[in-house]
Write a structure and sequence with these properties.
564 residues; 8-stranded mixed sheet; 3-stranded mixed sheet
């Protein structure tokens, strides 16, 4: 099947969307790769395909491992952490701690909630001119929230220890409905186009973080409507890498990774539809988790592809990620695609050793076309994990070569459906490249979209049974290339742009199609001093194991400072 530009034009006309012939040609070309991938997968998997797309969450739940009994966390750890945080001399120093250490400091040493908030606001402002990580820094709202928390703490001093994020500055990708005096405040979604992509009401994940005591200090930059993997944003301004502004921040959760890497916030929420948490986490040197589809409710958040979107946290340690995940995960009774499985205590699970865990090394695809410094950095991570008692085993991979494009077929078909009315009314307000991406679904026939969803169940089941019958987790690069320059990945780069973009999502997008959990961790630095990331991939709902692997590695993650 070849997609003619005339078919794209006809679809656009039927929906009332203005489309130039040149754009229809590009859309047809972009959609063709997704259609070809579905054709390839149908030939390979079609005879075995069965089930309906609605069975997807149930299949993920059925493939999850049995929960294991968690040991009690040793009390000696807290005592040693109190000693460590006691050496901090200023609120700025406390920002350099991990989230869990900073919470301990607030509970035991009282450095002053207001001083910590002011230090976070100051650091955000200091890095803004270099990175443009923030779409809004909101001192008034942050101070009001801090004052209210101080009042609570005076009335009930033990409340600090009982609320696991009490007084800690956080900020999130600008795609969540935030609390407001008269209801909720809608996000910009990184665009100047009025968005209709959120469900109504305050985002469940934001409510849960605030109930745990967090202080929201602003909103963070993102690729416009989450349609981009580099951090470019033609509508609201590009977000640059935390370590050097000439390099990409990754996307689409660009500001989230940069703000965490700079130490302006202790943790941040983003979303991941093709790698949008893991790619920016990798290139900025922090941890980023794409959870199992259905673990975290998406109520009140921006939609891009409801069949694939997940919300995921970023932080500077495995324990910090575990704490945030324990707070935001679990059904809210509103999102029908959120699993009702009990949420484990992810933080407590970190106490389990990794000795004897089998980590799979894929025999093909993931380690093809990997830059040498990335390969060397992953070898060093492997050596550390082997020293800690993990075993690396070779794993024969099924055919995953088409999964990234299968994901693309689903994502762009759904995204265009969601954007159709906005494209009809406000097409000129989109930046050109995002308008093109948001329109790509015009070239994807409905049967191709339906087949891609149907194939997912068979591929998921065979992947899990074949891979995790031999290992407990897979080990891959997060991105197989060195951090690209911003000018090499801008629209002005011409045709050389497209191979770079394809490589950026090569190791991440297949996992989104399958809905499996995947964690990007810092793995080292490239010759330019920019971060390299490694990725763990696990069974459905086995985030605890991935976090345990990350916790077994060194935790001295540096914090980016303004360039002088």
């Amino acid at each position: 099947m070849r997609i003619p530009a005339s078919a794209v034009m006809s679809a656009a006309e039927a929906l009332g969307i203005e489309l130039a012939p040149q754009m229809a040609e590009r859309i047809a070309s972009g959609a063709q790769a997704a259609v070809d991938a579905v054709a390839h997968a149908s030939r390979h998997w079609g005879a075995r395909a069965n089930g309906e797309p609605g069975d997807y969450l149930a299949l993920l739940e059925s493939l999850a491992p049995e929960p294991s009994k968690m040991p009690q966390a040793p009390q000696a750890r807290e005592a040693s952490e109190v000693t460590r945080v006691g050496s901090m001399s200023s609120a700025g120093d406390f920002l350099d701690l991990s989230l869990c250490e900073a919470h301990l400091a607030l509970a035991h040493l009282d450095p002053g909630f207001d001083r910590l908030t002011e230090a976070a606001l100051e650091r955000a402002q200091a890095m803004q001119s270099q990175t443009h990580a923030w779409l809004s820094i909101e001192p008034d709202a942050a101070r009001a929230r801090t004052t209210w928390l101080q009042t609570l703490a005076k009335e009930s001093p033990d409340i600090v220890g009982r609320m696991p994020l009490f007084g800690l500055p956080l900020a999130h990708k600008d795609m969540f409905n935030l609390p407001a005096d008269t209801g909720y405040r809608s996000p910009s979604c990184g665009s100047i186009v009025p968005s209709r992509l959120q469900s109504s009401g305050v985002a469940t994940v934001i409510q849960r973080l605030e109930l745990a005591g967090a202080v929201t200090v602003g909103t963070l930059n993102m690729a416009e409507f989450a349609l981009g993997a580099t951090g470019h944003n033609g509508a609201r301004g590009d977000c640059a890498n935390a370590w050097h502004p000439d390099y990409i921040s990754g996307g689409s959760s660009s500001g989230s990774a940069v703000a965490v890497a700079c130490g302006a916030v202790f943790a941040s929420l983003g979303s991941d539809t093709g790698g949008s948490v893991r790619i920016p986490a990798s290139v900025n040197g922090v941890l980023g988790l794409k959870p199992t589809y259905g673990l975290i409710p998406r109520t009140g958040s921006m939609r891009l592809s409801p069949s694939i979107d997940v919300i995921g946290p970023m932080a500077r340690s495995a324990r910090d990620l575990a704490r945030v995940l324990s707070i935001v995960a679990g059904a809210d009774g509103v999102d029908p695609h959120c699993s009702a499985r009990p949420v484990p205590d992810f933080e407590q699970a970190l106490q389990q050793p990794i000795e004897g865990l089998r980590i799979g090394l894929p025999d093909r695809y993931f380690f093809e076309d990997v830059d040498l410094p990335v390969r060397k950095a992953l070898d060093q991570v492997r050596a550390r994990l082997e020293t800690a008692g993990a075993q690396f085993v070779p794993v024969e991979m099924p055919d995953v070569s088409s999964l990234a494009e299968l994901s693309r077929a689903v994502v762009y078909a759904e995204a265009t459906g969601l954007h159709a009315a906005m494209l009809r009314e406000s097409a000129g307000a989109y930046s050109p490249q995002v308008r093109l991406r948001a329109s790509t679904g015009l070239g994807i026939p409905a049967p191709v979209y339906g087949v891609a969803l149907g194939l997912r169940l068979t591929i998921l089941q065979e992947f899990v049974e074949q891979i995790f019958g031999h290992c407990d987790a897979l080990f891959t690069p997060t991105i197989p290339l060195l951090v690209p320059r911003r000018d090499a990945t801008d629209v002005g780069a011409g045709e050389s742009l497209w191979p770079i973009l394809a490589r950026l999502v090569r190791c991440t997008a297949p996992i989104n199609f399958l809905g499996l959990p995947a964690l990007s961790i810092p793995a080292g630095r490239d010759p330019q001093g920019l971060p390299i990331g490694a990725q763990f991939i696990g069974r459905p709902f086995d985030e605890s194991l991935l976090l345990r692997l990350a916790a077994a590695l060194p935790t001295d993650i540096p914090i980016a400072r303004p360039l002088t």
